[in-house]
Amino acid sequence: xxxxxxxxxxxxNRKAQLGQFAGYLTATAGVLLGATLLVVxxxxxxxxxxxxxxxxxxxxxxxxxxxxxxxxSRNVFEAIAGYYRAGxxxxxxxxxxxxxxxxxxxAQATEQExxxxxxxLGLKDEDAKPVAFGRLIGSTSASARRFAYLSVGSRQxxxxxxxxxxxxxxxxxxxxxGADSARVLLLTDSESxxxxxxxxxxxxxxxxxxxxxxxxxxxxxxxxxxxxxxDVFVTxxxxxxxxxxxxxxxxxxxxxxxxxxxxxxxxAATDIVAVEPIWQQTAVxxxxxxxxxxxxx
Amino acid sequence: xxxxSLSERRINRTHSPVIALGVPWLSVLLGxxxxxxxxxxxxxxxxxxxxxxxxxxxxxxxxxFPLWAGLPLGMFDxxxxxxxxxxxxxxxxxxxxxxxxxxxxFPWRGFLLDWGLxxxxxxxxxxxxxxxxxxxxxxxxxxxxxxxxxxxxxxxxLVARVVAVLDxxxxxxxxxxx
Lengths: 297, 178
Known about the structure:
Helices cover about 40% and strands about 25% of the residues of chain A. Chain A has helices at about 15-45, 50-85, 85-120, 280-290; strands at about 130-140, 145-150, 165, 170-175, 180-185, 195-200, 205-210, 215-220, 230-235, 245-255, 260-265, 270-275.
């Protein structure tokens, strides 16, 4: 048992009494200041973003070093695991290659037809050229909000609102940018809302974050729920922030007004991400050019 | 251990105030920096380490942290935790005042009681932090806290041990008296 220190009982010692009083006073001041700051930052979420990003810029180099370690250590484990599964994987890979060969020919045919049709329509391929490449170097893993920190910032051209993409799909969008780091709102944050559509047709929905690692796909047109398990959803391009066609989620469980989707690009498994420009600007340019309306089919 | 060899040289040595006061503060700040560990979590998984370390210090060594310590420590935590600025200041300060009042009532405690107290405070802290986070409150949001709380409960004794080791380190007699 730890014996209590006699600090709490000040007795008739005037100085100790005053000291304790001052302690309570400062603590109360701390509580009040905290409450005030909290009200301000809930009212204006970006009120202290400068302060936050300055602090993030200072710590980011250490985080980057850790992120490099994460990537390399994962490779080490994967390499070791690979030895255990070499035989069965070999057979599986051979099967896959055979299927892939067939698919490749099919894809080539589709590509040719695509090019021909696009030529007919007079459309140009407008690839969104990434602004910068960076690593996810940390995340608010103890908070109910889902933010991640990115190792590139405004000095690399990263601005708030830009989509962050990994090879597997959409990760989130930049919320605040520091000089050499940025804060990303992940798709699973409850404030994140992305307009999506089903990849194979035009069933439109919203993908809302559920902060437990999954997404809630809410259909825009209510009625019979056409979604089936395994349906892949991609960004629709509505709203102009995200370019269309970036994979977002796959439906796992059906609900009354849509489905619960699993994230396609799990930020925990992504290493390098690309920051893309806000799509709207290209959309505005495309509208200015006299082109046939390709969306209305 | 290193401490035995150092404790042999106890004559003519005293504590260094920099280490004695610096280690506790630094350890809490480092706990807050756990956000920068390369864990990109799609859901909240880690316990709020800065707060847990502060709690462990406070329960192990009453009086080491002044009552106003919640202000700077909470502010630092807010810069990185993803919570709106001010939530840490408020909750850290409230926790310190709360423990002070509880301690006034129940001055004698053992480790199990400390653990129980820490669990109760962490449960309140995590729910309050979720409520104040500015995220929309859904039933899912509340269930998400549960794994985090369980991990915090399990982790607390470990953190308390680490803090106890740091406490011995902090009181090493390293400064020469001349």
